[in-house]
Design brief:
Elements (H helix, E strand, L loop, with lengths): L3 H27 L7 H7 L14 H4 L6 H49 L1
Length: 118
């Protein structure tokens, strides 16, 4: 007996496969195919790369020492965050030192006023 849970999973998987086939058929038409047949659509629906040239292929495989654009942007954003965080830490240290100085001044003034009152 087949579990209902497995049937649902299978139907969802089939639904998404059909959805990808419809999308692939539309993309293949944009690439210039007049009427893509089902075997061609089935072949391309799992992997929509047109070819493996330097524009379509995986940049890490083609340019081994270069980072992708997304990785470069992520590194820049991380550096900016580090600069911002370093600035915040410096400001925090300044505030803590300034507050300590103010507390010492306040303690000194309280002591002076106390002895004047006596």
């Amino acid at each position: 007996m087949v579990k209902e849970e497995n049937v649902k999973k299978r139907s969802i998987r089939r639904h998404f496969k059909e959805k990808m086939k419809r999308r692939t058929k539309m993309i293949l038409k944009r690439w210039g195919m007049k009427d893509p047949t089902d075997p061609i659509v089935g072949k391309h629906c799992d992997n929509l790369t047109k070819c493996s040239c330097y524009m379509c292929g995986n940049p890490r495989r083609l340019h081994k020492d270069k980072l992708t654009r997304q990785e470069i942007e992520a590194e820049l954003e991380e550096k900016e965050w580090k600069i911002e965080i370093d600035g915040i830490e410096d400001f925090y240290i300044y505030l803590v030192e300034h507050i300590q100085d103010l507390e010492e001044d306040l303690d000194r003034k309280v002591d002076e006023n106390f002895w004047e009152l006596i």
